[in-house]
Structures are given as C-alpha cells and as structure tokens.
Design a protein that fits this description.
Elements: H1 2-19, H2 35-42, H3 54-65, H4 67-77, H5 85-91, H6 103-114, H7 118-121, E1 122-125, E2 131-132, E3 136-143, E4 148-154, H8 158-179, H9 181-186, H10 188-202, H11 205-218, E5 225-226, E6 239-243, E7 248-249, H12 253-258, H13 263-281, E8 283-285, E9 293-296, E10 304-307, E11 313-315, H14 318-332, H15 336-345, H16 355-366, H17 379-391, H18 399-418, H19 424-440, H20 442-459, H21 463-521, H22 527-542
Helix pairs in contact: 1-2, 3-4, 3-5, 4-5, 8-10, 13-18, 13-19, 14-15, 14-19, 15-16, 16-17, 17-18, 19-20, 21-22
InterPro entries: ABC1_dom, Kinase-like_dom_sf, UbiB, UbiB_bact, UbiB_kinase
Binding site for ATP: 130-138, 152
Keywords: ATP-binding, Cell inner membrane, Cell membrane, Kinase, Membrane, Nucleotide-binding, Transferase, Transmembrane, Transmembrane helix, Ubiquinone, Ubiquinone biosynthesis
C-alpha cells in the first residue's frame, strides 16, 4: 500500500513538472531520453505559464506542489554556487505567504500539546493567522497574565508529509547521480541531505525556542539587536509561544525614511550585528530575510533591530572563523597565494594540490571583482566565486560556510537596500583586524593562560603521581618490547639454522650420491668413492652443527 501511495505521489509530481514544461531541465543531460516517457505518464496535455521564464515556471510549480517544495525552493535560492543566477533570483521570491490551514486545526494542535483548552490558557486568541509559512503558521493571542504573544503552530501531519517527500527526494537524487554526470557535479545528494537536516530542526519548535533564547542571551541589554522572549511553560515540540514584538518591517524602506531613521547607521548596525554573531558568538541567525527582521524606530538616530524566527541558526568552529577572517583580509590585499594555502592548511583541499595552479585559478575568479569600487564589492559573491573555484579542486562542501554565505548575501543585499553607498569593507575590516589581533596577540595568550591556570593548579598536585604512573607504564611497555625483540631474534636464529642445515644437507646428499656412483662405476679404484663418501659424511654432520649468530 505504501508503494502504491509513493507511486501515486510520484505521478502527481511528474504531472506538475511536465505541465510547467520543466522536463526541459533534462535536455542537456543523458536523461533527455526520458522526456517522452515523462510526458506520457503525466497524462496531461495542458501547459501552464509557457510564456514565462524557466525560473518563474519552476517557482510556480513548487508553489503548486506545496509547502515542502516551497521550502526546498527557498533553500536552493541560497545555493548560488550550484544554481544558475536566473533560477536563484526567481526562487528567492518564494516568501512565507503560504495558504493557511484552518484555525480549528490549529486550536486542536495547541490544546493537545498544552493539555488545556484555548480558554484556559489565553484570554484572547485570533483565529485569523498573522502569517502562514511552509512549516507552521502564527496566531496573535493574549495570555491570562495580560501579556501579548504570538503562538506558532506546526502544520498538521507535516512530519509525515516531510518524510514522504524526502524519502522520494533521496531516491531521485541517488538515481540522478548514478546516471547523470551533471547531477554528480552539482552533488544533488548532498543538497537533499542538507535540506533534510534543515527540515529536521525546523519541525521541532523546542529547537527554535532554544535558539531564540540563546540569541536573546547573547544580545541581552544590547542596543543593536532585540530578540523576543520565549514562554517556556507554553512551548512544546509543535507549539511555541513567544513575546509579540512591535516594529517596522525592514523591507518597508519608505516608512523607515518617513520615520526619520538614520539609514547609514541602520545599515552599519546590520553589518556589525552580523560580524558580532559570527566572530564573537559563533552563533548566527541564518535565515535573515526581510520577513524575519523588524526595526524599533523609537530612537531614529540609534535604530534597534528586532529578529524573529530562529529556526535555522549557524555555528562556526574557531578554525572556521580564522579561515574566514584571513581569507577576507587576503582577498582585499590580493594575496591569492595565501588564500590557496589557507584552503590546504584547513584540510578542505588535499595537500597534494598544486598551490601555484590553485592560486592561478583563484586569481582568475577574483580579479574581475576588483574592477568595481569597494562599495560595490560583495563579500557574499566573493565566497561564491571562492567555493566554485575550490570545488574544481575537490573541496568538500562545508555546510556551516554555505549557511554563512547565504546569510552574508542577505546582509549585504539588505544593507545596500537601506543605504546604497554602504561600504561593507569599511565596516568589516577594522572588526576583522581587531578580532585577529585579539585571537593571536599577547593579550590573547595572557587570557588563555589565565583561563587555564585554575585547571593547571588543580592538576599540579597530581603531576608526580601521573609521572610515576607513566614512567612505570613506559617500563612495562619496554619490557614487552624487549620480550618481543627476543622472540624475533630467536625466530631469526631459527631461520638461519634451517637455511644452514638445508644447504649442507643438500651438499652432503650430493656427495653421497656421487660416492655411490663412483663405487659402482669404478669398483677397482675405491679412492674417489671413499673421498666422496668422506665429504658426504662431513657435510651431513656439519648440517647438524650449531651456528654462530651476532
């Protein structure tokens, strides 16, 4: 029965894709021979939006296929290292305006999760969704305490739908990579795996709530960024209750200007928030599209950002941060050899790669960028160029850096929408140089020693005992080694003894045979036979003698 359902679902997807003419994507691949088969099984002769571009038709098809495919389109729009620009631009238009599900279903999920009726928890609850996304939708409400909140509710049966669709996506990706070199080049299986991992985190609202709470802690009492409060008593895996915020959508540029907001300051603060999250906290909001960002314009000269929807967060290791900082600085100094060396040092490129060849490829990709003014140079597009070049040298995909690249593109696009003259380098360079100085300078060494000192003092009394134990253990290992060495010596002696005995036994046997032949052939002359017999006896006896070894 499950196989029949999967087949029915596959036919539905095929019908939608063919109707929008998306079978054309097979044309440049060996799978082009399947186009007639796809059309035959679509059972549809109606064409939709044939006058539109391929990117627009793909976007419309994903909307028709439903929430999971809309989310996939949003994710693909950020993978400009894989997806052509015309398609990426169109998919970027997929916003969180999905058809809402009925409010009575939302109420049923909330009541089941909280173990109480809506009336027992809220004094008011809006049945009209405030917003509807591919995974969940949100409703305005007021708690019994009088606090205004928003309630986020997962779509009914969304986990089941996700698993069904992802199972098929994994199978199709494996099949595509098996038969298409283009699919292998684009690493379709990795894309689907990354998408699977992202969705797995998004369908548990406790993870989003924890992310929100952690980001709020990082920016507590900050005038740069405000993150709303989580109400943990009313948060479950399928329901999350969060403080309702009031602010101007970041995308409403005209309204911000009308409110007298200092747009340069707003853009600069956005860049500072990004670099603070990445380099200070190693924990950054990775879904910073305009729908998730608002502005508190109470103080127009010092506008404060407000961030919501922390379902997708990125984290970086210290090595990742050093790699990024050094790469950015080397890029603006046009030190392409250093960029190449950084990739090898990080282990992302095999150390047998030719540095001069890799350096030349990076130079060819990056030099055209310097034809623009500094204010026009994009950090995000630099990373795209860098990753595309490195991929030709078999660099493995680094998911954390892909998320960062996506976020950086958002930040840059948003910053220049707010203030077209934004020079990201002017804002970022001092921050990066200071961060690197703090990481490797004398103060950093002092701070590290200061941080480790209590642990060292705690372990100090144990050091003599640890040294004795290690010396004793080393002695035992040496005894084992000596025993093994003795066994190997005995084995070598045995082999030499065998070779000695074998060699002399063969010689002695030869002389014995010769002695017999001489005696039979020359019975009147017994001297040669006797001499050979004596030699035979000598060598046979010698084969039994012990041998000397060094």
């Amino acid at each position: 029965m499950n196989t029949i359902k999967q087949l029915h679902h596959a036919l539905k997807i095929n019908r939608t894709l063919v109707r929008y003419g998306l079978d054309e994507f097979l044309t440049p691949t060996p799978l082009a021979v399947l186009r007639p088969v796809a059309r035959l099984f679509s059972l549809s002769f109606k064409k939709s939006a044939q006058d539109k571009s391929r990117g627009e038709r793909l976007r419309l098809a994903m909307i028709e296929l439903g929430p999971i495919y809309i989310k996939l389109g949003q994710m693909l729009s950020t993978r400009r290292d894989l997806v052509p620009p015309d398609i990426a631009d169109e998919l970027a238009r997929l916003q969180d305006q999905v058809e809402p599900f009925p409010s009575d279903q939302a109420k049923a999920v909330i009541e089941k999760q909280l173990g109480a009726t809506i009336e027992q928890v809220f004094t008011s609850f809006s049945t009209t969704p405030l917003a509807s996304a591919s995974i969940a939708q949100v409703h305005e409400a007021t708690l019994k305490s009088g606090e205004e909140v928003v309630v986020k509710v997962l779509r009914p049966n969304i986990r089941k739908k996700i698993r069904r669709d992802l199972s098929m996506m994994h199978e199709l990706a494996s099949w595509a990579e098996k038969y298409s070199s283009e699919a292998r080049r684009l690493r379709i299986k990795e894309v689907v795996k990354e998408y699977d991992s992202t969705l797995e985190r998004e369908v548990d609202l406790r993870i989003e709530a924890a992310n929100t709470s952690h980001l709020r802690h990082n920016f507590s009492d900050s005038e740069l960024l405000y993150v709303p409060k989580i109400y943990w008593d009313y948060t479950r895996s399928k329901v999350m209750v969060v403080e309702k915020i009031a602010g101007t959508p970041i995308g409403d540029v005209q309204r911000l200007k009308d409110d007298g907001v200092n747009m340069k300051e707003l853009a600069d603060r956005g860049v500072e928030i990004f670099f603070t999250q990445v380099f200070r906290d190693s924990f950054f909001h990775a879904d910073m599209h305009p729908g998730n960002i608002f502005v508190d314009t109470t103080n127009p000269e010092k506008p404060q950002y407000i961030a919501i929807d922390c379902g997708i967060m990125g984290t970086l290791e210290e090595a990742d941060k050093r790699y990024l900082a050094h790469n950015f600085l080397a890029f603006f100094e046009r030190d392409y050899k250093r960029i190449a060396e950084l990739h090898v040092e990080s282990g992302w490129i095999d150390d047998d790669v030719s540095i001069p060849e890799f350096e030349s490829a990076i130079r060819a990709a990056c030099e055209p960028i310097f034809g623009k003014s500094l204010a026009e140079i994009s950090f995000g597009h630099f990373l795209i160029q860098l990753f595309q070049t490195a991929r030709r040298f078999n660099m493995k995909v680094q998911p954390q850096l892909v998320l960062l690249q996506k976020t950086l593109l958002y930040v840059e696009g948003l910053g220049r929408q707010l203030y077209p003259q934004l020079d990201l380098w002017e804002t970022a360079q001092p921050y990066l140089r200071k961060w690197l100085r703090d990481q490797i300078g004398p103060q950093a060494i002092f701070d590290e020693v200061k941080a480790q000192l209590p642990d060292w003092l705690h372990k100090a009394p144990k050091i003599p005992g640890l040294l004795f134990d290690n010396v004793h253990r080393l002695g035992q290992e040496l005894e084992k080694f000596e025993g093994l060495k003795k066994e190997l010596t005995q084995l070598e002696h045995y082999k030499l003894r065998q070779n000695h005995a074998q060699k002399h036994a063969i010689i002695g046997s030869g002389f014995a045979l010769l002695s017999g032949l001489l005696y039979l052939g020359l019975p009147q002359d017994w001297v040669p036979a006797l001499s050979s017999g004596v030699l035979a006896l000598f060598f046979l006896v010698k084969s039994l003698w012990p041998i000397k070894t060094k």
